[in-house]
Amino acid sequence: MTTTDLVDRLADHKALRAAPREELTWLVEHGSLRRLQTGEVLTAKGAPVAGLFIYLTGRISMSVDRGAGPRKIIEWRGGDIGGLLPYSRLVSPPGDAVAEETTELLSVPRDCFPAMARACHEITTILVHVMLDRSRVFTSSELHDEKMVSLGRLSAGLAHELNNPAAALERSAALLEARLEECDRAARALTAFRLTDAQFAAVDAARASCLGRRVQRVMSPIERAEREDAVTDWLIDHGLDPATADGLAEIDVTFESLNRLAGTVEGPVLDALLRWSSASCSVHRLTEEIQDAATRIAVLVKAVKGFTHMDKATVAEHVDLVQGLSNTVAVLRAKARTKSIAVSVDVEEGLPPVRGFAGELNQIWVNLIDNALDAVPESGRVEVLANRDRQRVLVRVIDNGGGIPLQIRERIFDPFFTTKGVGHGTGLGLDIVRRLVYHNEGEIAVDSRPGRTEFRVALPIAERDGAGAAD
After folding, report:
1. Residue 175, φ and ψ in degrees, nearest 5
2. Beta-carbon neighbour count of residue 34 at 10 Å?
């Protein structure tokens, strides 16, 4: 193919058709025509990008594995431009660029860029606009992927947290039905007896001895067996059916109240009263367990709702960092417990609100705290501190992990850079954090040494705009 033929093809190129012909000629004279077969790799992940790629025909795609299998993040066809662009900070691609079909492209080496900027002003302007458009595509994709990763962590933690109260609800509801039936049977049996005021007072005292003890404790199997044996002995000593021992052992009724009851009634009346008291106390206890489990679920849902800000518009507003940090720790509590990590939150009293985007700030906290949880060993420690620092609020996330090696500390905010194993890190978390901090007009810094790593995020205090504003 002659130089004229190739210039003619560039003159019809979707992205370059507005460029002067002499500049297109410069590209042809300094570039080389390449043909790729289906499946051939144009640029490999992690390898330096050779230069500018002007796609004439065919299709090139790039896929990235961020922990859930390869996913196509961008595609170039004939009429597009890819590879390294003028003034771009791109060093190496996050994934392999592979030909999906036979592809022709003009490749311009990166060492020609300074001369191209001087000789091809129109083309350089076009390429800068291409770079900006590509940056927006990558940014949107990265934010989406990082949010999906966070959602996955949140879902796993929430499922773990909800499992215990949900199981308690199911278990208590099933037991409640049986206890209610037993209570009804005992109540019907009591209607055959005429109880005196003193006997009713003894019954009330027995019920009050278990209902009044609000602090519940879980007995060990040995403690439970010992209590059931003691209750069985008491029943046998009073000539009563020992089958009642199982129900009485579950509740916190005292032997003192049982003795008082036995001093006022005996025989079948005492047996019926014990069955009714046992069932009644169990019903109240199970009702409290159901209420407690439902409350825990409601608290978790409230924390997740506050974390995601599902009912908030995406506009800058006064943000309460106390609530945001607390919600974030709540949704990550399950992960901390799996490694026996102690997580503490210490917020200065009267901390003023900041002005920003609540959902974005929570994304910052979840990334920093989640990274800290990954960094610390079993039984490690993570501290979250927030205090006022002049006209800013300073949030610090500190862990006692192994620290960040000095040789990579300057790269931790680079896109796609990660020290985690394949499938465990996207290399986007800290890049996203930095972008979101800047978007909220804040600053971020890191200080690390073995045994202590501290990330500091400084955010401007919200200006006074009414009675509820900060001082």
Report:
1. -70, -35
2. 15
Class of the domain covering 312-460: alpha beta
Q: Are 203 and 261 in contact (CB under 8 A)?
A: yes
Give the whole-angstrom CA distance, residue 370 versus residue 336: 9
Residue whose entry in the numeric block shows the structure tokens 């005492």: 270
Q: How does pLDDT run across 251-299, given as a tens digit for each residue?
A: 666 777 778 777 777 777 777 777 877 777 778 777 877 876 777 677 6
8 Å CB contact between 81 and 24: no
Instruction: Count the neighbouring beta carbons within 10 Å of the beta carbon of residue 450.
Output: 11
Q: Which residues pair with 141 in a beta bridge?
A: none
- Token pair for 182: 């037993």
Whole-number Å distance between alpha carbons of 307 and 330: 9
47-50: list long-range contacts, CB under 8 Å, 24+ apart. 47/92, 47/93, 48/91, 48/92, 49/83, 49/84, 49/90, 49/91, 49/92, 49/93, 49/110, 50/83, 50/84, 50/107, 50/109, 50/110
What's the order of all strands across the beta sheet hosting 452-460?
342-347, 381-389, 392-399, 452-460, 443-449
What is d(CA 77, CA 173) in angstroms, rounded to the nearest whole number? Answer: 61
Among 3.30.420.240, 2.60.120.10, 1.10.3720.10, 3.40.50.2000, name the CATH number for the domain at 3-119. 2.60.120.10
Tens-digit pLDDT profile for residues 384-422: 999 999 889 999 999 999 988 887 777 777 654 555 543
Report the alpha-carbon angle 54-60-66, nearest 5. 125
Question: CA nearest 131: which of 81, 93, 94, 91?
Answer: 81
Angle subtended by helix axes 255-262 and 197-211, to nearest 10: 170
pTM of the model: 0.44
Please state the domain extents for the chain. Answer: 3-119, 156-300, 312-460
Q: How far is it, in rounded angstroms, from Cα 1 to Cα 157?
A: 60
In the block, residue with structure tokens 């949880």? 373
Instruction: Looking at 191-266, list the stretches that DSSP marks H as alpha helix, in order from N- to C-terminal side.
Output: 197-211, 221-237, 245-250, 255-262
Strand partners, 54: 81, 106
